[in-house]
Specification:
The protein is globular. It is of the alpha/beta class. It is 44% helix and 15% strand. The chain has a single domain, classed as Alpha-Beta Barrel (TIM Barrel), CATH 3.20.20.70.
Length: 254
């Protein structure tokens, strides 16, 4: 059985003090929650403080990005060596990184390999834009992103990866994708590509989240879908009450 994973991507929000307060509120809210894995992904500046605020609670910690080199003259970048031992997860290939910072499938693949080599669990984001969706190109685009991201990664490492399907047209728009359609796309385009690479058993073992205007009102419908394993949450993760509600919905503990 795949355990749902709900990760809060705080993006470029929260000072250190604000991040600590939000972490404490989330920690209280999910204290007795079971059946779901909760992960917080604050900005780099707050990683250490959030880690301390999490304390012994069963909450994972993730970074929002990472460079693939261990060290070097790469001003402004953060390496897997720097993240190892600080957090457990790292978001890679988010649509905003692809759109605003020109990240490519090849770069995401290099980052994923580097993360796995240093014991970090990549949350690899894939998704199509509105034009591609309306043009019927979703299977080609999303399946291609999956194949590129996993290129050269062996089955044992692949099983550790989390995939976040985030249709670009649903991110930050308030318009979430239809749960049944997301379920179909994940099964066909994501697990289908994984099955081609690793076989059906591995494809069924890898967790796939949904991301894109997730909120407490729609999470229960996504959680009912057999192919969806939690959510990568953006704006709704910035308030403890809404994020905790999403985590509870994902776990089935409404």
């Amino acid at each position: 059985m795949r355990i749902p994973i709900v990760a809060g991507n705080w993006k470029m929000h929260k000072t250190i003090a604000e991040a600590v307060e939000l972490t404490r509120e989330v920690r209280r809210g999910v204290r007795d929650l079971t059946g779901v894995e909760v992960v917080l992904c604050p900005p780099f500046t707050a990683l250490a403080a959030v880690r301390e605020a999490i304390g012994p609670a069963h909450i994972g910690l993730g970074a929002q990005n990472m460079y693939f080199e261990e060290q070097g003259a790469f001003t402004g970048e953060v390496s897997p060596l720097m993240l190892a031992g600080v957090c457990q997860y790292v978001i890679l290939g988010h649509s905003e990184r692809r759109q605003f910072f020109n990240e490519t499938d090849t770069g995401v693949n290099r980052k994923a390999k580097a993360a796995l080599a240093h014991g970090l669990v990549p949350i690899i984001c894939v998704g199509e834009n509105l034009e591609q969706n309306q043009g019927g190109d979703t299977p080609t685009v999303v399946g291609g992103q999956v194949r590129a991201a996993f290129d050269g990664i062996d089955a044992q490492h692949a099983k550790k990866v989390v995939i976040a399907y985030e249709p670009i047209w649903a991110i930050g728009t308030g318009v979430a994708a239809v749960p049944a359609e997301v379920n179909r796309i994940i099964g066909l385009s994501i697990r289908g590509a994984l099955a081609d690479l690793y076989g059906e058993t591995i494809a069924q073992a890898i967790r796939v989240q949904y991301g894109g205007s997730v909120n407490p009102a729609n999470m229960a419908d996504f959680a009912l879908q057999s192919e969806i394993d939690g959510a990568l949450v953006g704006g709704a993760s910035l308030k403890a009450a809404s994020f905790v509600s999403i985590a509870k919905a994902a776990s089935g503990n409404l």
